[in-house]
Amino acid sequence: MSTLPALIIIDMQQGMSWPAPDVRNNLGAEAVIAALLAEWRQRGAPIVHVRHISRTPGSPFWPGQLGVEFQPALQPLPHEHVVEKNVPDAFVHSGLERWLHVRGIDRIVIVGVSTNNSVESTARSGGNLGFKTFVIADACFAFKGQDHDGVPRTAQEVHAMALANLHGEYATVLTSAEWLSLSHQAH
């Protein structure tokens, strides 16, 4: 039996790779996610792939669109659990909480996109539902945007603020190197 928590990979769909590199941060996130996925697979630990299915016609994540498909390097294996969601939070109307509880899983590690949207909302729910929740900072990314005051914010600023919102209150935020060191000590 694995000592690793469930790895929850959020929205690593083809449509997430389409925006230009200058509108997002952490261009190495996909490689970090792939390395973590390989680690979980090698150790036989639970993996959950989350896919966003949009309710907005014309969205790249509308059913049947190429954007909704998983990125080839992060494709789920047949025995890995896939959760489909229609809102940012992967726990809402998805059965994820029950799937974890039925398997006795009380710890989760969250990676994916975007840090301030689906990652943050899922981590908040995970923490609120009583799961020991970890977010891997370098295995997530965000997109630039404007704050509520209309001030333009870089993708890194959006990413860093979302992680700050989570750390200590809902989750423990670590780098992949910190996580791997911690998980190998426990193993």
Automatic annotation (TrEMBL):
Name the InterPro entries for this protein.
Answer: Isochorismatase-like_dom (IPR000868), Isochorismatase-like_hydrls (IPR050272), Isochorismatase-like_sf (IPR036380)
- Give start and end of each Isochorismatase-like domain: 6-175
Keywords attached to this entry: Hydrolase
This protein's record includes keyword Hydrolase: yes
Q: Which Gene3D superfamilies match?
A: Isochorismatase-like
Q: Which GO terms describe its molecular function?
A: hydrolase activity
Q: Can you tell which superkingdom this protein's organism belongs to? A: Bacteria
Protein name per UniProt: Cysteine hydrolase
